[in-house]
Design brief:
Blueprint (H helix, E strand, L loop, with lengths): L5 E5 L4 E6 L10 H16 L5 E6 L4 E3 L4 H4 L4 H19 L5 E5 L2 E3 L1 H7 L3 E5 L3 E3 L13 H9 L1 H10 L3 E2 H6 L5 E3 L4 H13 L3 H14 L4 H15 L3 H11 L8
Parallel strand pairs: 2-3, 3-5, 4-6, 5-7, 6-8, 7-10
Antiparallel strand pairs: 1-2, 8-9
The chain binds octanoyl-coenzyme A.
Length: 259
């Protein structure tokens, strides 16, 4: 499929790379970008090949510097609400995609960009990455889920400090706050992302799908019900070919080969 505002590339071993591609405006998100992301998610969700998705921004300056301010400056209140709902729905679909999704944050991840990164399963950051929710400078609130996901990831006091001040957090502080998993030199970020993705792609995809559901659905449940869900999905994992292959390989002292 030909996209104008994003690129979707297939790499080895079922690894796909989605690049937000509007470098002249630091990859700012407008309706067209969101629409193309939705189409890409349809393709990935229906693909039997896709095993891991990496998301990054074009150029060496930004992951995504937010929703497109020029676009938002022309919206009525109801259009603003509709834009927020549209973006949130796309990010929720990304969050629920049935394969691991890793954000490679290669520069500014501000506003909608930080919200996009937080909708991925986890974040790898380049050493020039900067995170923030600077909407307060524009007289608006976050609108693509940032107030909720940031609070869940870094806790209420730090989330409120960031929302009240609009300040940017450098990669090192984001690492300390648990927002990113690892930091790499800017030039090495894609290579490191691909290395980790290849490792993940070599493991059981069905086990990863079930683990993703457990973590995502379990965090909103009480511990008793979350543990019941875990024993249910643990039982379900015994019905899979991957369980047969994984356990046979261990007993036969060989590496497993998952399909
Ligand atoms: N939207 C539109 N254009 C942008 C954006 C953006 N978010 N960010 C940067 N650009 C454009 C600039 O206007 C500039 O264009 P031009 O060359 O034509 O002047 C170009 O990108 C390069 O940017 P700068 O010259 O500003 O580059 P600097 O290195 O000087 O600064 C910054 C980089 C600090 C990232 C700066 O560009 C900046 O502050 N950008 C805005 C960041 C921001 O406020 N983001 C949050 C936006 S609000 C949001 O995301 C809410 C999401 C939920 C929406 C809900 C729907 C209602």
């Amino acid at each position: 499929m030909n996209f104008r505002n994003i690129q979707l590339e297939s790499r080895d071993s079922g690894i796909f790379c989605l690049t937000i591609n509007r470098p002249k405006v630091l990859n700012a998100l407008n309706n067209e970008v969101l629409e193309e992301m939705g189409l890409a998610l349809d393709l990935l969700a229906e693909s039997n090949e896709a095993r891991v998705l990496l998301i990054t921004g074009a150029g060496d300056k930004a992951f995504v510097a937010g929703a497109d301010i020029e676009h938002m400056s022309r919206l009525s209140p109801m259009e603003g609400k509709a834009f927020a709902e549209y973006g949130m729905a796309i990010f929720r679909r990304l969050e629920n995609l049935n394969i691991p999704v890793i954000a490679l944050v290669n520069g500014f991840a501000l506003g909608g960009g930080c919200e996009l990164a937080m909708s991925c399963d986890f974040i790898l950051a380049a050493d020039n990455a900067k995170f923030g929710q600077p909407e307060v400078n524009l007289g608006i609130t976050p609108g693509f889920g940032g107030s909720q996901r940031l609070t869940r990831l870094v806790g209420r006091p730090m989330a409120l400090e960031l929302l009240f001040s609009g300040r940017m957090m450098a990669a090192e502080e984001a690492l300390q706050q648990g927002l990113v998993n690892h930091i790499y030199p800017q030039q090495a970020l894609m290579e490191e992302g691909l290395k980790l993705a290849a490792n993940i792609a070599s493991k059981s995809g069905t086990a990863q799908q079930l683990s993703k559901q457990l973590v995502q659905r379990g965090q909103d449940l009480d511990l008793d019900n979350a543990c019941i869900m875990e024993s249910d999905l643990f039982g379900l994992s015994f019905s899979t070919d991957d369980r047969k292959e994984g356990m046979s390989a261990f007993l036969e002292k060989r590496a497993p080969s998952f399909v």
